[in-house]
Amino acid sequence: MSVYEKFGFPEVTAEAAKGMGLSESEFEGVKKLLGRTPNYIELGVISSMYSEHCSYKSSRMHLAKFPTTAPWVVQGPGENAGIIEVDSEGLCVCFKVESHNHPSFIEPFQGAATGVGGILRDVFTMGARPVAAMNSLRFGKLDKPKNRQIFEGVVAGISHYGNCFGVPTVGGEVYFNSCYDGNPLVNAFALGVVQKENIYLAKAEGLGNPVIYVGAKTGRDGIHGATMASEEFNENSESKRPNVQIGDPFKEKLLLEACLELMKTDYIVGIQDMGAAGLTSSSFEMASKSGSGVRLDLDMVPMREKGMNPYEIMLSESQERMLMVAKKGYEDKVKAIFDKWDLDAVVIGEVTNDGYVRLFWDGEEVAALEAAPLADEAPKYNRPYARGEYMDELQRLPKVDAPANLQKVLEDLLANETIASKRWVWNQYDHMVRVGTVQLPGSDAAVIRLNESEKGVAISSDCNSRFCLLNPYEGGKAAIAESARNVAVSGARPRAFTNCLNFGNPEKPDIMWQFVSAVEGMAEAAKVLETPAISGNVSLYNETEGKPIHPTPTVVMVGVFDDVTKRIGSYFTSMESAVYLIGENTGYIGGSEYLATVHGYERGDAPEVNLECEKSIIDFMCSAADKRLIKSAHDVSEGGLAVALCEMCFGGDNIGVNIKLESGIRSDALLFGENHGRVILEIDVNNAQVITDLAEKYNLPISKIGRTCSGLIEIANKSEKVISAKVSELEKIWKNSIGDRMK
Amino acid sequence: MKAGVVVFPGSNCDHDCYHVLKHVIGAETVFLWHKDTDLQGVDLVVFPGGFSYGDYLRCGAIAKFSPIVSEVIKFAENGGHVLGICNGFQVLTESGLLPGALMRNRGLKFKCEYVNLRVDNSDTPYTNMYADGEVIRIPIAHADGNYYIDEEGMKELEENNQIVFRYCDENGTAEDDSNPNGSLGNIAGIINKKGNVLGMMPHPERCAEGVMETRDGYFLFESIAKFIGGCK
């Protein structure tokens, strides 16, 4: 009996292939590609590689629309993470955002924790030390106990992993909408620092070089996780809990230190983390990228439990593992470094040159697949797409009466979970470790200094998914524009973005249309704003019982500072400053939080984004920050002008604002409309002329709308006083809303 | 002053302490590996924050068995200066260099935020640049900072003026409202009877430079550097 036969694997049939997520036509294609029927191990490997999660089969042809190059881009999409240059001396940052939505619904704590672990590995695999983490989170409304449980678990999981690992979680975004009932989104972002000459790539080069497995042992957790992440949810999903991996941040911290120590030597030629589809994707990607081949002796893999077979080893998604190729003869030196950190490092194979990944057990070949066709030529679908017929109805703006008491509306909006302070969340994250966080959470962008120098980056994560539902093209543009605006408002020059495209089932033409439209909108905005995409991830099939989430293309934008002391915060800093508005209030309320919260409509076309104007705002803000002309600044987004003004008062110093508007727009629309292209500025009165001249230079509308004062928030339009409240009272509502709901 | 920052597996504020001591204070600074026993002639040992040995079993409980800690205990007994911050404070109580224990925060959650501290004893090597009763703002970041000690122990701490920092409001009043974790007597940091070993939950290294939210932590490092002497 052969070694393969001893495992007693089931027969390979179209039915078995379907069970692993391969369609009938894909299975036929595989047989044609191989010229034979794969064995069971091979089928498992192929089905993982062909999963939506690994192959991007529905999205690839559209992702090609993103701009991906610029003089400062060092590594674009295709590696574990993208890299841009921060200065002319080779200081680089490496970053990526990735989804962990499906696991986080099934097991919120571990799902979110391992999402953080995975993205951190993506960054340090490139040779970069992670110095900042963020996350974009979406949940159903907190009045449902299930949503509270998921929210609590996800935040605790992120806190657990990031805090122990020692990366500051410096911000992010949290949205609440009933479309995420049963399908929360957990998108984890990490950013690391690396010198250009020290970047490592996933390469398997040099015939006979040893392939070394490092890190945690392999267990049965997460088998077929990538396939699970490529399916819709139904009532059986909870039974998939064993598909969720368990994270150990302490182990990952050791792995980080050991890898970085190793990367300072010249012992290794390539390194790849084992993320989705574990050993399968890491070995095939390394082999195919280098055009070499790999032989793996799977019985050498350190195993956590007895009786594991090659199929399980290849598909396990156990965490905190890496695969590396060392130079021949340096095995012992590599092992010594891992020994120091009490980690396993085992030679499990070698680099070959026949283009195949060959798997052995007890010296017998149990599977052999050509790497390149599987890694590079996975199926690619141009799925049909069409605008849903329901769009006409959705885009029609309902007529609503103006509420009598706008102050009550303001209070309701400040208490709305999406707008309320996220302090309850970020208080649980260590956001200061590594002494780089020079802008604490709560501002428009997180600001991190790099290597304890004056150089730094600003990071902002944004996506208004309601806009994307109502108009995916404009919503996609808005996600890029708002994140870039937030970065610029903090004083940095936006340079590149990473994205996580969370959508429903792409086999439905209306969902595919959302996807294509959003990508095209993002691509257009990215071109105009000169911010290429350098990494990203796609998460499809975000549907539960056939109900899709709002299209949610999360964007994380990174901007660069020459001097972080020029950063701009978003809280008012002093009394008797002048308050200016850049941009114009149009009074458009389609898609606004106001329309949804107060009137119950998620309706109306999304506001249009004027990209030329957004570009000018960026140039203006960078120039003004460089001259230190601005005391604080905040962009106008969810909740409109009134909410933005309040948020600027909530820095804890009891500074209020006295605003006098002269507008013919109906007061509710004026206060709470969410049209783009607006920024509120706090200026020293002596700089008034300079700042208006600068705005004019960039053709930006600018108007003085008021001044800061002590303790009161007062807003009047013409002679009508619409808001008059104590800062402390409104701040209390805003600050305690989420914490009170979670008690 | 020559300072040594101990690196346990899982320490994650080691680089931060090293940076502040070396680049901000200007002290000669080295890392001390947990498996080593040579203190390299340092005048000050710092146990940094983090999750030593993953904080498995109990925070700081495994660290006390590491080779370096045995040496540091001897060093402290001979009058050497030892500073424990956050997880380092937990290591100090676990290893018996400081009395009491640090339990799970009463809110049960990890908490990271700036807090107000009242300096209750400025007559120590670590606080001589502060004034008694001064209110400073320093961040905390921990899940297990709830200081506990029995009645007798508390009496002793108070009699010997060993309570160095207490959580307080902006006016310096140390009441329950300003207690972030449930610590007995709002205790945030204590010193041993001899006055050479200080443990504190807040992170002074996170606010030791002008670019940070406050610079209040700088003076702690500057105090000990001046006390020991020999820094730039």
What distinguishing features does this structure have?
heterodimer, A: 743 residues, alpha+beta, 7-stranded mixed sheet, 28 strands, B: 232 residues, alpha/beta, two-stranded antiparallel sheet, 5 helices, 11 strands, globular
Measured between the Cα atoms of the first and last residue of chain A, the distance is: 62 Å
- Main β-sheet, spatial strand arrangement of chain B: 2-1-3-4-11-10-9-6-7
Based on secondary structure, the structural category of chain A is alpha+beta
Oligomeric state as shown: heterodimer
Helix vs. strand class of chain B: alpha/beta
What is the topology?
The complex is a heterodimer of chains A (743) and B (232).
Chain A lengths: L2 H4 L7 H6 L4 H11 L5 H10 L2 H4 L4 H4 L9 E3 L6 E4 L5 E9 L1 H6 L1 H17 L4 E11 L5 H21 L3 E8 L8 E11 L14 E6 L9 H4 L20 H15 L4 E6 L4 H13 L2 E5 L12 H6 L5 E6 L4 H10 L3 E9 L3 E6 L2 E7 H6 L14 H5 L10 H10 L7 H4 L10 E3 L6 E4 L6 E7 L2 H6 L1 H18 L3 E10 L6 H21 L3 E7 L3 E2 L2 E2 L3 E10 L16 E5 L10 H7 L11 H16 L5 E4 L4 H10 L5 E7 L5 H6 L6 E5 L4 H10 L4 E9 L1 E6 L2 E7 H15 L2
Parallel strand pairs in A: 4-5, 9-12, 17-18, 24-27
Antiparallel strand pairs in A: 1-2, 2-3, 3-6, 4-6, 7-10, 7-11, 8-10, 9-11, 12-13, 14-15, 15-16, 16-21, 17-21, 19-20, 22-25, 22-26, 23-25, 24-26, 27-28
Chain B lengths: L1 E6 L6 H12 L2 E6 L10 E4 L19 H11 L3 E5 L1 H8 L6 E3 L7 E9 L15 E8 L3 E3 L2 H9 L3 E6 L18 E5 L5 E4 L17 H11 L4
Parallel strand pairs in B: 1-2, 1-3, 3-4, 4-11
Antiparallel strand pairs in B: 5-8, 6-7, 6-9, 9-10, 10-11
Helix pairs in contact in B: 1-5
